Amino acid sequence: MADIRLEGVGHSYDGGETWALKPMTWTWRTSRAYALLGPSGCGKTTLLNIISGLITPTVGRIFFDDRDVTGVPTAGRNIAQVFQFPVLYEEMSVYDNLAFPLRNRKYPKNEIDQRVRQVSQLLGLDHVLRRRSRRLDPGRQQIVSLGRGLVRAQVAAVLLDEPLTVVDPALKWTLRSKLKEIHRDTGHTLIYVTHDQTEALTFADEVVVLNDGAIVQAGEPAELFLSPAHEFVGHFIGSPGMNVLPAEIVGDVVRVGQADVGSVADGLPPGPVRIGVRPEFVEITGARRSPGVAARVTGIDRMGAYDLVHTMVGDHPMIARTAAGASYRPGAVEFLHFPAERTFLFRDEVRCGSLAPLNGRSPG
Amino acid sequence: MTAGTQVSGEVVTAAPAEPAEPHETRADLKRKDNRAWWLVLPVVVSVAFTAIIPLMTVVNFSVQDVFSPTERVFVGLDWFYEAVRRPENREAFVRTLLFSAQVLLVEIPLGVAIAVAMPRRGFWVSVALVLVALPLLIPWNVVGTIWQIFARADIGLGGWTVNNVLGIGFNYTLDSTDAWITILVMDVWHWTPLVALLAYAGLRSIPEPYFQAAQIDGASGWATFRHIQLPRLRGVLTIAILLRFMDSFMIYTEPFVVTGGGPGNATSFLSILLSKIAVGQFDVGPAGAFSLIYFLIVQVLCYVFFTVLTRSGR
Fold it and tell me: Which long-range contacts (C-beta less than 8 Å, at least 24 apart) are formed by B143-147?
């Protein structure tokens, strides 16, 4: 177990023209469960393969604690990696699969046996040890692939590259809790790659959001939800994602069209800005009771436990989440209020401040 | 054949729905469904012309002694007994079997080795593919002619080199072993590329994570081959083995051109012997019986290979 430190690590597949992974400095702290979240093609798998040594980064150095492993081949890094689909030595039994990494490293026979039994007990594979691995269901097969990584001593980290893709939904929950259990029991550092926010948020101590080859925000699930540092995080996390509305700072007031929606607390220079607010926090209020913008209702999605009210503010769509049974009518004009502590201002997609109440001019 | 099974499949699945509808009896359904059999007709007709009718003429000959187009006598299974009993035939059978075994033993491992050694990506992939595939593009009798000349001790580059540079006496027109080796090397040269290409295709279809996992598990090159590549080549190798067995067991053109079956009977394989009987001596009766037995042997051996190879995979 070790801290995994990336120093200026970046990777380019085309000799430096474009970066699949922009140079970054980042530390994966030992014993934590991380989720690496991002859309397809954002560099998640590249980052993972750099950590496990399958790819040598174009620039930068990698340290496991203080040991520089940049040039160390995969086999020497003690990384366990699980891929999108189960990778097994299909003609071997489960036992032989688990023993394979140790046999390759010429461990003595009794030690192999002891370690394999330890891992199989941990993963609940005891009763299938003698079975041919290809006869197992995909979920079990993934567990076996995981076991092949865990069987080695001093595993530095367990990397999981969207491991539940091939597993059917009913089994996903079981497997995910199994993974959490393993994490608790072994204390291995876990890095779990996914593009599924639910998977990431329920699984991890810390979620790292990757977009376009760069880390845009990292934090606890609640932090990413309540306080997105980047427009992308707002869009990507939450369902539906954060609303974004073009606005302008005039003096210390934030204006959408002609309407004042709040003031600026952070001394931002005037100019165009984008307001970001999650549907969960948009309030539909009675006419002109608070600072807000006029919005025309275009439709309502009845989601069962809640309703999503779709509106248009000028040309921009805005969604508000309300209690189930909302009585808004399509075509009606309502007023939307953005609560100060949950509304943020973005410039160039990066958060630059937050909305403050409109002092003296606002009842709420 | 395929169309036939599909249609009959529909007929069968339609029938069990019957108990739910009391007014429609099983007989009603049967009469309706039977029209589907007409769909099989095109297949039956084409198979009849391509396979059954030609085969039946052979069957027809095999049970008769034909003296002339108008004079023929029914002899029952006599030609079959004779074909099995004749020492010449038995020797040719053993010879052919031995040849096929040697062909498989050399070409399969060699083909796999070439496939593993071929580049996986980049410019050299196409170069390697073209080079490997080249022998496959040459017509059989041209291959025979090439080797007939190449292996000659007096003017052939190969034969001359073996005699005068390596100093080993080599003459395939006089020495049985030399003739055998020439035919075998020729077949290896001609057909190993097929095995190599099939194996290469099989290797390329293995997803990258398998190799990555092997790297993580610290597997050596040999262990990677043994536990990842080889198991995943099972399918293509089954095809390669069947194709190479059938082809080599029925080899005709090349030995006919190179050695003509000689010296003596050293390279008289079953097909060469058969054509001697059928075309050379025009004994259509014995030749008919011979070819039916030949046909049967190929079928049985292929079935055995296929069964063994697919069983061992389960």
Answer: B143/B186, B143/B190, B143/B253, B143/B254, B144/B186, B144/B253, B144/B254, B144/B255, B144/B256, B144/B257, B144/B258, B145/B257, B147/B182, B147/B185, B147/B186, B147/B189, B147/B254, B147/B258
pLDDT at residue B12 is higher than 60 = no
The verdict on B17 and B122 lying in the same domain is no
Q: Tell me which residues of chain A have a pLDDT lower than 70.
A: 1, 287-290, 359-364
The reply to whether B71 falls in a domain is no
Write out chain A residues lying below 8 Å of B207, CB-based.
Answer: 85
Cα dihedral: A294, A295, A297, A299 (round 10): -160
B297 touches chain A (CB under 8 A): no
Structure tokens that stand for A165 in this block: 């893709």
Residues A267-289: tens digit of each pLDDT: 788 889 999 999 999 988 876 65
Task: State pLDDT tens for residues B279-295.
Answer: 888 888 888 888 899 99
- Return the SS3 of A310: strand
- Cβ–Cβ gap B216/A80 under 8 Å: yes
Q: Are B126 and B25 in a shared domain? A: no
- Report the pLDDT averaged over residues B127-149: 90
A145: which chain B residues are within 8 Å (Cβ-Cβ)?
213
- One domain for residues B172 and B104: yes
Asked whether residue B54 falls in the same domain as residue B84, the answer is: no
Split at pLDDT 50, 70, 90, the class of B24 is: low
Q: Are residues B122 and B262 in the same domain?
A: yes
Tally of domains in chain B: 2
Expressed as residue numbers, the domain containing B164 is 79-311
Are B164 and B192 found together in one domain?
yes
